[in-house]
Amino acid sequence: MTLGPMPDARTVDDPPSPDGATGTGRRVPLAPVASVGAGTALIGLHAWQYGSWLIDDAAITFAYARSFAEGLGSVVQPGAEPVEGFSNPTWLLLLVLGRVVGLFDHGTLFGVPDYVLYPKLLALLCCAGILTACHRAARRVLSRPWLVPLVVGALLAAIPSFVIWSFSGLENALYALILVGLAVLLFRAVLDGRLLTPRVAVAAGVLAALAALTRPEGLIYAGAYPLVVLGNLSRATVRRSVRHVLVSTAAFGVPVGGYLAWRLVRFGQVLASPSVAKGQDLPTLHDLARPGELVNYLGAPAALLVMAVLGIALARAPWWRGGLYALLVPLGLAVTAYAVLEGDWMRQFRFATPVWVLGALAATLATAEVWRRARTRNRAWLTAGLVAVLLPSSAGFAHAAERFRGDPNISACYVADRFGRVFNGYADILGLDHASLLLPDLGGTAMTSDLRLVDMAGLTHDGFTGFARDKDRAGQRDYVYEVLEPTFIHVREPWSSGTGIGLDPRLAEHYHPIHFDIYQHGPHGDWVRKEAVRTPELLAEVRDHAHRTTTWIEQRAGVNPLRDCGPTLRRGQTTPSEPVPDRPGRAPLPEDAFPEAFSE
C-alpha cells in the first residue's frame, strides 16, 4: 500500500482556532463524512475476508451476556457457581443491551446469525468512531483534515492484527475507540489551552476508567492525564496542575473503585478470575524487549521511518508540538502495557490493537508536518521512502492475513459443535440427565451445552483458578479425579501434558475412551466415566456416534474454518450425524488399546 502526498499543516506561527474549523472544511462539509466512511469501508472490506469467524474466548463473554440478560447474574451457564469469568465489563454491557433489545442471541438479522452480525457491527461502528476522532485531531492542525481519516483508515485496514482482533467478537475495537478518544481529548486540550480545566480533567479520568473496565491493563491509562500535565508544567501552574490531577484521579477512581468494591464483596478477590488464572507476574527485563515483536511484524524499515518522522516533527518545533507530545503519551503507555502483559498464545498480536491505532494517528500527523516543511526535492525523497518501506510491509501483511484465513485461532463455532453439541449427543445416547464435562475450551460450549461445565483453564471455575495460578499440576489432577469426578473429560495438547490430566493413570482406570487419538505424543480425545455407562451396547453406540459425527466435525473444521454455527446457539442442541468418507479418519480405539505408556 502506498501513500500519496500528505495534507499540508498550518504554518508554524498559526495560533490555534477556537473550534478547529478551516475555510476548506466549511467549503466541503461532506468531505469529513466521506473520508470517515471510506476509511471505515476499507477496514470493513478487510474484515469481510474473515467471514463469520469469532474467537472462542469471545463466546465466553457471550454466555455471560446471556446470563445477565436472563437475570441469572455472573454465571457462565444456569446453575453454575457465580464467577467473574470475564474481564471486559463495558463490552459485556453492550452485548447485554443488544440481547435485551433483540439484536443479539435471538436468531438472524438480514439472514446472518445475530451472534455474528451484532458484535461485528459494533466493531465497525467503533472503527468509524476511531476515524471520526482522528478527524477531530487533524482539523485542529491541518488545512485538509479530511484526508487524515482516509489515511489512518487505509493504514489500519492494511494491518491484519488490527482487523482480525477488532472483528473477533472481543472488545478490541471498543478499547481502541476509548483510547483514541482519550488521546485526542488531551491533544486538543493542550492546543486549546484547556488542559487545566475541570471538564478536561474529569473527561480524561472517565475515559481512563472506561479503558480499565474494558481491558485489565487499561488501568495504566490512569497515568495519561498526569503525564501530559507534567509535560506542560511550569512554576506558575504547579498548584492548578496538582488540583486538576487530583480531580482526574477521582474521576477515574470512583467508577473503577466502585467496580472493584463490587468484585471484593461478590467474589472476595481483587482481580477477575481470568487475570488470576493467567498468573500475571511483574515484568522482567526480557519482557521489556517484547515490543520488538511488533517492530518485526510491522517491518523494521517501516518502524524506523515512523520513528524518524516523529523525531523530525518534534525537533522542528511546530506550534502544535505540545499536542503531538500529548498523543505520544498514550501511545507510550500502550507499548508499555504490551510489554508487561503475559505472552498470549493467540496469533496476530491480540494485545497490540491500541499501538496500531495511536501509532497510525501520530505517524500520519507527523508525516503531514514533515511534508509541509519539506522542499520539493525532499518531498520526492519522502514519497520514495514511504513507498520503499510500505510495499514490503504490505506484502508481509497480505501473507499474514492469508495464513490466518486458512488456519485461524480456535473458533467459537468449532467449539460449539465439537464440545457443546457433540457432548450433548453423547449424554442423550447414554440417557444422562445431570452430566458434567471437564474441558479447556469453554466459549462455544457454554452457549450450546446442557452439561455442567468445568473449565480446565480456570477462567470460569474457582476450583481451577488457584491451581492454574500456582501451576499446581498435582493439585489439579487430584481435584479432577478425587473431588470433581466429571462424567465426561476432553483433553488435548497442550492441556493433556501441561496439566498432566490426560497422562494420569486414573483416566484409564475410571474412564472409557469414546473418541481417542495420540496427538503430539499425548492423548487427545473424549472420555466418559465408566459408571455412567450402563451397558456395553450403549458404549458401542456412543462410540459409533463419535466415529460418524465427531470425525465429520473435525474434518469440516479444516475445510471451512470461517463458517458460522447455524442460525442460533441454544443449550441442548446436538449435531446430526454425517457420513464419514471411505477413509477411516480417526476411528475410536477399543478400550484395551489405551496406552499404558501414558501414566506417570
Summary, kept brief:
The protein has 600 residues and is mainly alpha-helical. The protein is 58% helix and 6% strand. It has two domains: 34-401, no CATH class; 412-593, no CATH class.
Main β-sheet, in a few words?
A: 5 strands, mixed
Beta-strand residue percentage: 5-15%
Percent helix range: 55-70%
- The unreliable regions are 1-25, 580-600
Overall description:
- There is one protein chain.
- Helix content is 58%, strand content 6%.
- It has 600 residues and is mainly alpha-helical.
- It folds into 2 domains: 34-401, no CATH class; 412-593, no CATH class.
- Strand 1 and strand 2 form a beta hairpin.
- Helix 3 (56-69) packs across helix 4 (89-100) and helix 3 crosses helix 18.
- The protein is elongated.
- Residues 1-25 and 580-600 have low confidence and may be disordered.
Describe the secondary-structure layout.
Elements: H1 23-27, H2 30-48, H3 56-69, H4 89-100, E1 108-109, E2 112-113, H5 114-138, H6 147-158, H7 160-166, H8 172-192, H9 198-212, H10 224-231, H11 238-267, H12 273-278, H13 291-298, H14 300-315, H15 321-340, H16 353-373, H17 376-406, H18 412-430, E3 436-439, H19 443-448, E4 452-455, H20 462-470, H21 473-484, E5 488-491, H22 495-499, H23 505-510, E6 511-519, E7 522-529, H24 536-559
Parallel strand pairs: 3-4, 3-5
Antiparallel strand pairs: 1-2, 5-7, 6-7
Helix pairs in contact: 2-5, 2-6, 3-4, 3-18, 5-6, 5-8, 6-16, 8-9, 8-15, 8-16, 9-11, 10-15, 13-14, 14-16, 15-16, 18-24, 20-21
